[in-house]
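Researcher: Quick test of sequence recovery. Tokens follow.
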């Protein structure tokens, strides 16, 4: 995550399972939240859910999804002018 974009770079195990590089400008992100785990739909871990302005919803397995969702929503709420302060945080 930077002050201008949100990106997901899958690790080797995610890539083996079909994970691909994903990115979007923060101006395209409308919200982030946490999805409960689903053992029949991909495992026990909670996921970060990112919704974009074109109504696309994507799910990601990340460390501390609640914290990341809070950061993403904070950046989206701040707008582009103040994003540089948090650039490169995670």
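Model:
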């Amino acid at each position: 995550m930077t002050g201008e974009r949100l990106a997901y770079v899958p690790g080797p195990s995610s890539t083996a399972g079909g994970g691909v590089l994903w990115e979007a400008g923060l101006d395209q992100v409308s919200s982030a939240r946490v999805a409960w785990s689903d053992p029949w739909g991909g495992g026990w871990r909670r996921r970060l859910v990112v919704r974009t302005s074109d109504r696309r919803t994507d799910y990601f397995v990340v460390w501390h999804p609640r914290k990341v969702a809070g950061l993403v929503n904070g950046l989206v709420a701040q707008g582009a002018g103040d994003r540089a302060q948090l650039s490169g945080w995670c």
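The CA atoms of residues 2 and 87 lie 4 Å apart.
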